[in-house]
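lol ok so funny story. i was supposed to be doing the assay writeup but got distracted and ended up predicting the structure for this chain instead. priorities right. anyway since i did it might as well share w the group, maybe its usefull for someone
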Amino acid sequence: MNADLEQLIADYLERKEAKEKLERDISDISEQILSRMAEGESAEIAPGQGVRIQRPSRKFDPAVAQQILTGEQWAAILVPVPNSQRAKDILPGALYEQCTRLSGQPTVRAI
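and the output, tada:
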């Protein structure tokens, strides 16, 4: 391995560690802000610079829906969809692989 590549790897690992620390710090600070502000509340430290407490988004929950909807309503919202895990379990490996496509780009991972 050449020195340039070694330096790139060292820089990558150093910045990755710094990023993880920053993410932990942001999470800790966010928790402190959440403990001091209410949902929907905003605070600015300068015009256009501040934070707003966003309420959690609502997500459809099939288990809850099945409990409260009538059988007819439940049946009306059901649609058959392919399931990748089921395809992987049932199809021969080579055929399953033919049904897939690459997603994204190669990435660097710390080991």
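The mean pLDDT is 95. Residues 3-36 form the longest helix (34 residues).
back to the writeup now i swear
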